[in-house]
Amino acid sequence: MLKSAPSILFLKAFFITVLLCSETLSSQSFKLLRYDENYEYLKDSTKSFYDKIKYLPLNEKKDIYLSLGGEARYEYVDFNNEDWGRLNIGHNDFFLQRYDLHADWHFGKNFRIFSQIRSALQNGRKNGSRGIDEDQLSIQNLFLDVGLVNKDDQKLIVRLGRQELDYGSGRLISVREGPNARLSFTGAKIMYSYKNVSVDAFAMMADSVKTGVFDNTISKQLNLWGLYSKIIIPEAGNLDLYYLGIRRDESVFEAGTAREKRHTVGGRLWKYGGGFIYNLEAAYQFGRFGNEKISAWTGSVDIGYLFENFIFRPSINLRNDYISGDHSKNDGKLNTFNPLYPKGGYFGFSPQVGAVNLIDIHPYITLDLTSQLKMQMDVVFNWRYSLNDGVYRPSGALNRPGSSSDKRYIGTAYLTSFTYNFNKHFSLVSGLQYFHKGSFIEDIIQDAKSGVFWNIRLGFKF
């Protein structure tokens, strides 16, 4: 059941496009950030209907053109014993919908306007919509790009306006694709690239997501700023180096509530593809939390091997994370790590535990059962890093305090997920997660229960 009139427009556009272009596939795959797609290669192609909406010339020279695209996503969720039964809800099943449409205007080589509207809806959740569930209609992206340097091997672009951000593996800054409502910011970004090196510098104001129609607001203060660089090392991998700064008027940790100004410096060395694969990342944080100094850190090792020439192309991986928590409330320091703007499923889909005050060991395996069907199986063992700090949500928000307990083990998550790609446009994703409560959860929650999560999601993109 649709929740608002704007969604009907999205649904009509969805079905019309399905009928007209589902049989015609372009060679380019869709990007996580839709503004990263470039359809200029269709300039001289034979025009099918799909090609025309992806590259629509607006002048004789064809250097002014429009590209249209969008998405529809439907998801059914059943969550039993959310928050380990603390809310006494039992089964909580609900339905999520997400629609978006975008227009990408190019005015020659050096000017571009990208606009995108999005509708995220939720129906049936017993305890109401969370911030990640619903945003009935909003402007997700609306920015201007100005190209100051535009050479084959060197580019300098300035971007102004509302925009999505996503860097690295999504550990610290993510668009938050898993949840129904994605994140966006308003501000300025300068992007420079030269051969194998790229650097982004940005200054952003966080957008406050509200559930109504065009009612999201800009914070009107600088909330996020930084530098993020990527260096491609031929035949060896990739190196990311970054500095990130945040400011929040009211941050909540077990240590208390106060104004926070935090700086993060870190690096990531990674390589994907056939054979040996790895993703190594470390970061240190400093700054002020009220009258206290911040000193926090994280380290992550994710290594594996992809057997390209074996049946099902198995990838066997082992991951280990250490993420600091607060040592003491009385030492004048806050040691709790802040994951900033993380993606919701960093430790698996719909995780119960966030990347704060945590030690985890995470083996997992992926299998290509067919060319269209992928399977992944995970086991995640979770401990508290510090006994004087609590357990946090995937967003980084405090869930339950923990200094009253001397138990360390949070619990074990068992996950299995399947992804089936019918073709480029249609996909079906389903997953099952069982979180077995540990001694810490049993200690802090009376009559704690182990939780079960199941979902199925149908997606369409054009």
Oligomer: single chain
Low-confidence stretches: 17-26
The counted number of beta strands is 23
The helix/strand series, from N terminus to C terminus, equals HHEEEEEEEEEEEEEEEEEEEEEEHE
- Gap between N and C termini: 23 Å
Strand content: over 45%
The helicity comes to: under 10%
Main beta sheet strand tally, sense and closure: 18 strands, antiparallel, barrel
Discrete helix count? 3
Cα Rg = 23 Å
The pLDDT mean sits at 92
Category by helix and strand content: mainly beta
What coarse outline follows from CA principal-axis ratios?
Answer: globular
Report on this structure.
The protein is mostly beta strands and 462 residues long. It has three helices and 23 strands. It has helices at 5-21, 49-54, 439-444, and strands at 56-57, 64-80, 91-107, 111-123, 135-150, 154-163, 185-194, 197-208, 217-218, 224-233, 237-253, 256-271, 275-289, 292-306, 315-323, 333-334, 358-368, 373-383, 391-392, 398-400, 409-421, 426-437, 451-461. The strands form two sheets. It has an 18-stranded antiparallel β-barrel. It has a two-stranded antiparallel sheet with strand order 19-20. The model is unreliable at 17-26 (pLDDT under 50).
